[in-house]
Structure formats: C-alpha cells, structure tokens
Amino acid sequence: MNIRSLLSERIEAAFDSLGLQGDALLQTASRPEFGDYQSNGVMAAAKRGGLNPREVAQQVIDTVDLKGIAKDLSIAGPGFINITLAPEFIATASTTPTPSDNPQCVVVDYSGPNLAKEMHVGHLRSTIIGDCVARVLESLGHKVIRQNHVGDWGTQFGMLLTFMDETGASSDSLADLEQFYRSAKQRFDDDAGFQERSRRAVVELQSGDPDMLVQWQKFIDISMSHCRELYERLGIGLTDADMDGESSYNDDLKNTVDFIASQGLLTESDGAQCVFLDEFKSKNGDPLPVIVQKSDGGFLYSTSDLACLRRRIGDFKADRVLYFVDARQALHFKQVFAVALASGISDANVDLVHMPFGTMLGKDNKPFKTRQGELVKLADLLDEAINRANQLLIDRDVQGKNPDIDDAELARLAEIIGIGAVKYADLSKNRTSDYVFDWDQMLSFDGNTAPYLQYAYSRTRSIFARGNIDPDSLTAPVISVDEPERRLGVAIAGFQDLLEQVALDGYPHQLCAYLYDLAGRFAQFYEQCPVLTSDDETKLRRLTLTKQTSEVLESGLTLLGIGVAPRM
Ligand code: ARG
Q1: For residues 20 and 42, what is the distance between their CA atoms, to the nearest angstrom?
Q2: Cα(1) to centroid of ligand 1, in Å?
Q3: Which end of the chain is more exposed for a tag (fewer CB within 10 A), N or C?
Q4: Are 148 and 324 in contact (CB under 8 A)?
Q5: Which of 24, 14, 103, 4 is nearest to 65 (CA)?
Q6: Beta strand pairing status for 287-293 and 272-281?
Q7: Nearest atom of ligand 1 to the alpha carbon of 151
Q8: 305 close to ligand 1 (CB < 6 Angstrom)
C-alpha cells in the first residue's frame, strides 16, 4: 500500500467535489506536531479560485473521505492540512514490499570499471548505488537486467598487451595491476618504438587478430578476477553474466553507424562521421557534433554506447535504462540519448536516465587520494575499514559483554560493520553531491550511520532472545494504543512508499533517512513502552511492533547491501 498515493487521491477527490483544481502536494510531516503527513496543495488551489485558503482547507477537511484512514485532520499556518493516521489503518500495512502493478524491464548499468587498472575509490559510488537501486527494483517485482559496462577495449590495451608480450609477463606480475600499468606506461612514454608497436597492437586487436585476442582474454580474466573479489567483499550482485563490456559491441559498431546514416543523420566533418542536432550548440551558437566515427575509421565511446542501446532496447526490450555513472559524463549521455532518439534506436516509450553522482573527497575537500597522491585502491580501503571496525569492537568490549561471542564471530562482525560503514556513508549522502570521506563519522554508533542501524536491529533481536520468544509466532495485526506505538507503526507502514520512491528516482539516501527515522522512533518507543514486563495483551502488541521494526530494518539494510547481526 502506498500511503502517499492513497491520501493524495482522497484529497484530490475532495478538491474535485469542491470545484477546486490542483495537486494535494502530499509529504510526510516534517515534525511530530504536524501529524504524520501533510497536504500543502490547498494554498495553490485556493489562490487559483480566488478563495481564502484557511476556509478552503476547512472545506476540504469537512469533505474528504478518510474514514478508517485518518484519526485526525487539522489546519496549520496559512492552509496546510495535517493528517494523523488511524491505528486501525496502520494495522493493515505489511512489512514485505508489494509488487508493482506495472512491472517493467529495467536495465541497470553500474560499476563499469576500466579493466586496465585496479578498482579504486572512484568506482565505489557507481557500484554500490547502482546495486542498491537494482535490489529495490527487484523487491518491487520489476525485471532487472544488471549490466557491467566494463572498459575492456580502449587504446590502452595496445600498450598493456605489447608490454605483456615483450616482458613475458606472468599472471603473477599482474597481481598488482596498478604496478603493471605504471611500468607499461613508463615504457610507452620512454620508448618510441614501443609506442608504435602498441598502436599497431590496438588496431590488430580491434580488427579481431586471433593471437591478440588470446592475449587480451588472459589480461581481461586476471583483471576481472580482481573485480570479482571486490564485488564479493562488498556483497555486490554482479556476476560474469552481467558483464557486457565495450568489447562486446565491437561487431556492431559499423552497423550502428550505418544505421544512423540510413536515417539521414550523418554528416562528414573533417573526415569524421558526425551527427548534428539542434540541441547541441557551442557557446557562440555554432553547431556541436556528436562524433560516431573518427577520420581514421576508429569508433568512440559514444559509438559503443549507441550500439549498446540497440542491444538493451532491441534485444532486452528494456522499458527503462538507468546509468549510474559519474556526473562528469553528463554531456556524453545527453548526446547518446539524443542521437538514439533521433535515429529511432530508442523511442518515447523507453526511459533513458543518467543517474549521476558526485565525487568522494578527502578531508582536504579534494578527491580522495593516498599520501603519495594516488587514488586509494578499493581493496586497501576495505581492509582499513575492517581493521578499524575490529578496533572499535575491542574498545567497546563486545566480547567482554558477550562472552559467548568467539573470535570467528567477532571477525565476522568487524567485516559487517566495517564494510557496512563504508557503504552506508556513501549511500546516505545525496548522490548528486560530492561528499567528504570521514572514518570517525561513519564508524560512530550515533547518528545516521550503519553501526547505529545495525545496533538498532540487534536490539530488536535481543528483546526476543531475552524473552525467549519466537518472533514467527507473532502474526496478528497490531492496533496501537499508546502514541509511541502508533508513531512507530506509521513509520513501518511507510516502507512501501519509500521503496517506490527509490525505484523511481534512484536516490538510496532516502531509504537511509527512512531507516534512520524508523530506528529513532523505535528508540523512543522502547524507552517509553516497556515490552517484556507488560501485561500479556500489551506485551503481545509491543512484541509484534518490535518484530515488524526488526523486519523492516533487516530488509531495508539488505536492500542497501548492508549486513546485519543478531547481536553486537
Ligand atoms: N567504463 C566507463 C568509465 O569508467 C563507465 C561505463 C559507464 N556505462 C556506459 N554505458 N557508458 O568511465
């Protein structure tokens, strides 16, 4: 059940019967004293009819049919309507997501590292944000096709393969990809002959030379095994089957250019094949080309993305294609989408969306680097996170407090907390902004952090453990009696709204904010409403609310790709 849609519908029906026009503008209330939800649409509707907004608000309250849904409606300020939900309505909510009535096929393009190098922190955001949104879409019954558009075909492969060949590099020397890349680049910069051989190698590779392809495949396999390891550690649901890299479009690049030409869209300019579209002009108004083939016949990043759309729309039959890619590629995607639409590769029924994200910064507000000025390797970052989490558990004397937690469980906890903290710190920030990476903040047990939520979850579980109660035995709906119970119930009932929102906009931080609010309401409830020591009826009600909180926290964190533990 989507509460916001239901309330909007009812309020807009009241608008209708009062002869008003407008949107209910429904939001969750920003403060408890404003009820649970607020409708802010009366002011605009009244203005349009030249009416007094507070009087109109009263008429809407008198007219709207929210029987059994709201227990209280009131006017605030110039004409806001505050809505407080009825306990019997909240009782009908479920903690498991309801599948969409309109399931779609959604391609989610995320991670996409360039395989020449090891994954570094710059790849973290795409990987975890995309993964979260893919999970949320799936939880709502959409068909999700994950696509890892790895960079496995660029010009740097000429250099790497030639270096591999000439140094007789073994797989061992590729264990440190960064080092290997640096050495190859060094040779490339210092040695003109090597440079020339590298250039020839790319051409041979891209025209399908069998020997080159064998070498290339070796390189890709090793490089991918690095990625696979990281995906595993991060709990990312990307498999080899999801890897449709740039190379996989090679055979269709020429066809794609021919197809665009057949639509009468190609113009030759300085020997290059270009598409000129009205919406792309330079600052002084000159037409700006989208180049799809260079004068030497080579193809570009845009060409493979166009070929890629032919597969995603033509073969996969995608209704939506979501690209979780750095904000700096905004123009690239605008151009690719525009050419796809103009040429008929795509059409108005397909939703192509670039979901951009900002940069992860160090405390100096500059892109996060090591002291040597290099981008931080993701593997090193995760190692450090786990070490710090381990120290945290020692400082908190977790084993002292729970003597039956053995070393293996402690190590597992450190991993869940460390990796969860890194992921949550990122996911909880609005993806379009840059953010500052801060170990102390992300590993704090206070505030909007993973440890805080994981701890809240473990508290819900420990209530059952202490009471020796099986949560599965609690199935009856709860009609709350006390206000903290009701407020907790309202948050639980809002889970579906939140998931639908994330599925639509692709902002995981909204899910984080929701879970943080839920955990806060649970803390208040737990402080004011004794559970295990209450009379039987009250105890049953509160235990059921605790169970529901536990389920939503677990399912929410799982959708974020973050682990939970029953005790910590
Ligand atoms: N490999 C690219 C990069 O590192 C990202 C790929 C994004 N996806 C796409 N379809 N272009 O910049």
Answers
A1: 9
A2: 36
A3: N
A4: no
A5: 14
A6: antiparallel
A7: 1
A8: yes
